[in-house]
Design a protein that fits this description.
The chain is of the alpha+beta class. Helix content is 23%, strand content 25%. The protein is built from one helix and twelve strands. The protein has one helix spanning 8-54; strands at 55-59, 74-78, 92-95, 105-111, 116-120, 123-126, 129-130, 150-151, 156-160, 178-179, 183-190, 197-198. A hairpin with a 2-residue loop joins strand 5 and strand 6.
Length: 201
Amino acid sequence: MKRKHISGQDFTLQRKETENELKKKRRKLFSEIRAILLVVFAAAVLGYAFITFCMQTVVVRGPSMDPTLIDGETVVINKLAYVFGSVERGDIVAIRPMGSDEYFDIKRVIGLPGDKISIVAGRFIINDKEMEDSYGLGTVYSNGRLSTPITLGEKEYFVVGDNLSSSEDSRFSTYGNVQQSEIRGKVFYRLTKGRRGKIGK
């Protein structure tokens, strides 16, 4: 049997070809790893941006929105709702009072900029008409500063808790009208087990 003779030059060429193939494989591997890292980084950035600028979960504190929202429930707020739209009567909003960055207050909007609001015989009167109670607010027993009519400013809103008997809200001077800049988003979804779902007006 005749053996194939490999010259020193042929061996050198084969070794160089093998080294080149290994370099190509390494470059391909590094390229794939870099692509994966870029995807992971982009996902992390997008996730952070989504939470920071679009959506956020908030825990309801206190009984002021009961039974619509119960103390301890987790809700989702849409932070872009009022970037592309306006606050509407009946919206449940997340409020961050001026000077505070510790929590969100959850209330329902019943008064819009320019509205004249008062309470007569236990009912909210808005622009000289009794407000239709489609939110189950019931009779108002604490008039607060609404014993006489007040008129909201250009960027002011009047908010209340659905549980009027246990809510500190715009009826009282300690809370007052809410500025547009204090409304940080619209509450639209409940995450609580057994009550999970979209929150309507």
